[in-house]
Inverse folding.
């Protein structure tokens, strides 16, 4: 238990005062502390009143010590709830911060849901009752918390900040230490879990009693300052799930592609300054930016540097609480190729492999720009930060620039993690993060364990490498991470939940977390569901590590789609195709085992949806590859595509209205961007429709006379 413990206040003192006890009281208090709480995992049965059945709930090696039942612990326990009733009340100051009051509300709600005991929330202790004090303190890191028992009372304390919203914001964060104390208490002593962002993923056992050790002392602070999981199911990035998963940031993070918005080159060209735009192909590219792409500027232009710095200063002047301002380049290629910019590059320094092979590395040029802006901003706001990307052709180590200005925050974004089962990709990822973490002290990871244009909605967990990735961030000196997760919870199994746990504490026991996840959610069907996702992880590993020559050969046979997407489609067919029957058997077995429990059956039904999407996607892609790979281009080979597209459309339309809105939107966008073979009404779909019509017309023709 690192760091200085925050002492609890003894009975009779002001429960809202977070100051230290007198020395003699401190000595008396610490002499009582014999051990930090040890949560024991034991075989147990969970039953959630009205929602979880009492059958089929044996969870091998899973659960905590939830009640006041017999224990080897010699320390007297505080009985918070006994047989459905409680002497405790929740004390929170009348002028407490909104998030502190939210913590009290969450505690009462889930204690009542689990045990039927409703604890009153009061602003002052009442006579004849014991207390749970919830209060904000300043001695902890943002979002950190402490839980302590003293006498008959329990103290839940945390580092809170102002703000009344329920959402998790990374740009204007609310520190929620007291909420985190409540969530940790509920997880450890009431067995509550929040696995998904809807009711099917919430686990609240029905337990008549809740108790804690009488000498309980627990302190936790997040290892990472920035913990963001994005592009996932509804609510996962900023809703209740994110809050209960302890996601958030210590300061407001701003790092999106922004330079084309700060310097709109088309507008400046109309004002007589085309020189602000990037020089490409013998001209200034002054066309308007499209979304986050295009509109690159000349980063070596002195006027541009001053305009960007002025924009940052104005923003900080207007928003005194704003901690960071993004000056990141636009997304995509098209950076300036003018003499003044290229003179800052290292001659002959080029990218060695990948889709950008032989592109010049421009890291020195970009760091020079970041530093120049920071030096100007420092004059007015020496305590603020500039958010920037290390990305694409400026991802690689510099060779001339030796330092980064201390006000520059680097988001290292290789977008490589979905391929880290390849030895070369994993080695590159490790080297990259370790370099940048050693080069600068304000480095954060930005990575993509899931990308819809690569996995296409199929289950694509990284397996053991997911934990390796977060632990790499920790070992390499990254201060936080911004990670893409799957568009439904079924896309990557427990990995989004595991990421959240590891971003709080990278030393968490992932095997225990994973066993709990499958056991509590799927109960009697846990084994086949776990095997399903382990098989999917093997498929993704095979897809990304398969012989590249075979992948390239297959990819070249499909023409009517975006060139950069062809390889992904080939990988899916090669990686998942041979294991479809096995996955089908596992889903069927899970359905059989879950049939007697309506709630578990609903969870398994989502696995069926996930497999249906997998099967239909592969059936459609295989039909296209069969058609394109046949020299005679027989349209009849595409007819199976029609059934695949119809089944996929029906599935996406159905889940869009329930749990799959993010997946629906993502695949719609991906289909359009990639000119996907599975797009309804697309090129291959039209050929298949004509082939089916011709086949039907042929069947209606009378047989020729002999």
């Amino acid at each position: 238990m690192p760091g200085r413990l925050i002492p609890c206040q003894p009975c009779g003192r002001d429960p809202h005062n977070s100051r230290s006890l007198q020395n003699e009281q401190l000595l008396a208090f610490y002499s009582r502390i014999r051990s930090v709480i040890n949560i024991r995992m034991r075989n147990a049965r969970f039953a959630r009143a009205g929602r979880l059945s009492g059958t089929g709930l044996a969870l091998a090696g899973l659960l905590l010590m939830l009640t006041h039942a017999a224990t080897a612990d010699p320390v007297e326990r505080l009985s918070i709830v006994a047989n459905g009733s409680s002497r405790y009340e929740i004390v929170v100051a009348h002028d407490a911060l909104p998030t502190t009051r939210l913590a009290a509300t969450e505690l009462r709600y889930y204690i009542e849901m689990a045990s039927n005991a409703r604890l009153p929330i009061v602003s002052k202790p009442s006579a004849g009752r014991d207390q749970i004090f919830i209060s904000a303190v300043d001695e902890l890191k943002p979002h950190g918390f402490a839980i302590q028992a003293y006498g008959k009372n329990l103290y839940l304390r945390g580092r809170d900040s102002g703000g009344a919203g329920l959402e998790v914001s990374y740009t204007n964060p609310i520190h929620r230490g007291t909420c985190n104390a409540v969530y940790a208490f509920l997880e450890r002593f009431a067995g509550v879990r929040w696995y998904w962002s809807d009711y099917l993923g919430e686990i609240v056992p029905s337990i008549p009693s809740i108790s804690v050790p009488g000498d309980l002392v627990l302190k936790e602070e997040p290892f990472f300052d920035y913990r963001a999981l994005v592009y996932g199911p509804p609510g996962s990035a900023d809703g209740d799930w994110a809050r209960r998963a302890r996601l958030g940031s210590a300061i407001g993070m701003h790092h999106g592609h922004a330079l084309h918005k700060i310097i709109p080159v088309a507008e400046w060209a109309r004002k007589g300054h085309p020189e602000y735009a990037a020089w490409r192909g013998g001209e200034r590219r002054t066309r308007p930016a499209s979304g986050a792409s295009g509109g690159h500027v000349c980063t070596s232009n002195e006027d541009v540097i001053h305009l960007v710095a002025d924009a940052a200063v104005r923003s900080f002047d207007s928003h005194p609480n704003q901690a960071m301002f993004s000056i990141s380049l636009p997304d995509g290629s098209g950076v300036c190729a003018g003499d003044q910019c290229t003179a800052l590059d290292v001659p002959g320094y080029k990218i060695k492999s990948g889709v950008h092979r032989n592109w010049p590395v421009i890291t020195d040029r970009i760091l020079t720009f970041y530093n120049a802006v920071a030096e100007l901003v420092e004059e007015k706001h020496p305590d603020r930060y500039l958010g920037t990307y290390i990305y694409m052709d400026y991802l690689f180590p510099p060779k001339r620039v030796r330092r980064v200005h201390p006000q520059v925050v680097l988001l290292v974004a290789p977008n490589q993690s979905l391929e880290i089962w390849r030895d070369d990709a994993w080695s590159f990822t490790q080297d990259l993060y370790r370099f940048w973490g050693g080069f600068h002290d304000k480095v954060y990871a930005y990575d993509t364990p899931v990308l819809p244009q690569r996995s296409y909605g199929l289950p694509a967990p990284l397996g053991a490498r997911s934990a390796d990735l977060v632990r790499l961030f920790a070992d390499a000196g990254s201060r936080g991470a911004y990670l893409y997760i799957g568009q439904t919870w079924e896309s990557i199994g427990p990995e989004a939940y595991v990421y959240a746990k590891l971003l709080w504490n990278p030393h968490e026991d992932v095997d225990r977390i994973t066993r709990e996840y499958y056991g509590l959610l799927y109960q009697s069907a846990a084994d086949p569901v776990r095997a399903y996702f382990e098989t999917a992880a093997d498929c993704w590993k095979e897809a990304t590590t398969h012989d590249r020559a075979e992948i390239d050969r297959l990819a070249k046979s499909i023409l009517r789609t975006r060139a950069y997407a062809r390889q992904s489609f080939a990988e899916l067919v090669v990686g998942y195709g041979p294991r479809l029957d096995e996955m089908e058997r596992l889903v069927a077995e899970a359905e059989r085992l879950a049939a007697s429990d309506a709630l578990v059956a609903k969870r398994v039904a989502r696995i069926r949806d996930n497999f249906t999407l997998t099967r239909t996607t592969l059936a459609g892609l295989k039909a296209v590859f069969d058609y394109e790979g046949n020299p005679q281009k027989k349209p009849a080979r595409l007819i199976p595509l029609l059934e695949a597209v119809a089944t996929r459309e029906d599935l996406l339309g159905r889940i869009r209205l329930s749990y799959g809105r993010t997946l629906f939107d993502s695949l719609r966008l991906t289909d359009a961007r990639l000119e996907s073979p599975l797009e309804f009404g697309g090129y291959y779909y039209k050929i298949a429709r004509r082939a089916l019509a011709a086949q039907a017309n042929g069947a209606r023709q009378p047989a020729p006379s002999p």
